[in-house]
Amino acid sequence: MESYFHLKQNKTTVKTEILAGVSSFLATAYIIVVNPTILSQAGMPFAGVLTATVLVSFFSSLMMGLYARNPILVAPGMGLNAFFTYSAVLGMGITWQVALGAVFWSGIVFLLLSAFNVRTLIVQAIPKPLRYAIAAGIGLYISLIGFANAKFIISNPATIIGISPMTPALLTFLAGLLLTSVLLVRNVKGGILIGILFTTLASYPIGRWWGTDFAPLISWQGVFSAPDFSLLLQLDLANSLQLAIFPVIFAFVFTDMFDSLSTFVGLAEAANLLDEHGEPRHVKRSLTTDAVATTLAGLLGSSPGTAYIESAVGIEAGGRTGLTAVVGAILFLPFLFLAPLLSMIPPIATAPALVLVGAFMIRPVVKINWFQLDDAIPAFLAMVLIPFTYSITQGIIWGFLTWTVIKLVTGKRKEISIGLWFIDIFAISALFLL
């Protein structure tokens, strides 16, 4: 294990990697239930999507750990599943079988881009200030997800967003946030995992005394369920190649590509997962893994797979090698049979970890020269638009376009790489399709 994952070289241990893998899994596990909930609205069987979600997450995360050797989990992406259901199936009126075919073909495009090293060139074409800003923006985005999951931040018609009145659930979240913070400050090993477990246990009186919205109570009679393989190979490959479906394929390609690229770059910068040239570590293998995840999703019956920003929870817990991803992958498998157990971990239990990840991922902003405005303004827009628009893709689109325009009109055309010009073309196209 030491020779394969290079644990000493990465200054980590088996114990640390296991704790990190468990932490990343707990922060990511919600997708096992959320993905079927969204895709079932497209007419797909809930149980079938759940099985597909678990299998995509397991095989893709395992590949990320063993092949790319990075501590990043891969699973069906949020946002991509919404596009699949609400835009492609319900909006355009295509069948879910055709939509699955579009997912498969977008994965094939990814594999071709990876085979010819195009995606690696795209990563290298992203200017360093934008990389740092993307990392920070993703951190803010994760924090926003955490606050929203805890219902600390809520919708307010008068001010767009607001703070929830104090409730027992909110007090439990704040207690978990404080405890996790103290554990991290005191460098307690597995502090994030301890915080998640503490908040889960503390939330159960809420479920018993104030209703079951925050901590559902489980009946052991409803724990076990057999896997449903009804969606396996149900994709429509022929009809998904019609000209009218090309915009759907392109939207999957663009959204998945930039979500995975920005997530991977952001996590690499925030955790210093860089090679000797300062580039994200094992970038080609990681992006190939992401491409395989999307292709596999189409075959198994799910929306595209992508690298998960919640992997930052495990990375901050000390995960530095592929062993973290392997542990996370293995933890998905039991939920082929034990999916109801996920309801034992309420959203407020992982919320403190997600909020604190933002503090860790915002570190790279100190590398940006904020007095160099032609660098600072595009970086700032990329950073704040990711959480403000609730979209990683929108943040990086406007960051790239602003960088290009400002550099062009200020006579710094040499700072616009050929790769960035191609990115801009895709970005402009996406603004009219997404």
Molecular structure report:
It is a single chain. With 434 residues, the chain is mainly alpha-helical. The chain has one domain. The chain contains 18 helices and 4 strands. A two-stranded antiparallel sheet has the order 1-4. Strands 2-3 form a two-stranded antiparallel ribbon. β2 (153-156) and β3 form a beta hairpin. α4 runs antiparallel to α14 and α6 packs antiparallel against α12. The longest helix has 26 residues, at 246-271. The N and C termini lie far apart (44 Å). The relative contact order is 0.22. The model has no long low-confidence stretch (mean pLDDT 82). It is found in: Cell membrane. Belongs to the nucleobase:cation symporter-2 (NCS2) (TC 2.A.40) family. Azg-like subfamily.
Q: What's the shape? A: globular
Domain tally: 1
- Please give the count of helices: 18
Q: What kind of sheet is the major sheet?
A: 2 strands, antiparallel
Q: Unreliable segments (pLDDT under 50, ≥5 consecutive)?
A: none
Radius of gyration: 21 Å
What's the β-strand tally?
4
List SSEs in N-to-C order. Answer: HHHHEHHHHEEHHHHEHHHHHH
Major sheet strand order: 1-4
| Portion of residues within helices | 55-70%
Q: Which terms would index this structure?
A:
single chain; 434 residues; mainly alpha; two-stranded antiparallel sheet
Task: Describe the secondary structure blueprint for this structure.
Elements: H1 2-5, H2 14-28, H3 31-39, H4 46-68, E1 74-76, H5 80-89, H6 96-115, H7 118-125, H8 128-149, E2 153-156, E3 160-163, H9 168-185, H10 191-209, H11 246-271, H12 283-300, E4 305-307, H13 311-316, H14 322-332, H15 347-361, H16 373-388, H17 392-409, H18 418-431
Antiparallel strand pairs: 1-4, 2-3
Helix pairs in contact: 2-14, 3-4, 4-12, 4-14, 6-11, 6-12, 7-18, 8-11, 8-15, 8-16, 8-17, 9-10, 9-15, 10-15, 16-17, 17-18
Family: Belongs to the nucleobase:cation symporter-2 (NCS2) (TC 2.A.40) family. Azg-like subfamily.
Subcellular location: Cell membrane
Keywords: Cell membrane, Membrane, Transmembrane, Transmembrane helix, Transport
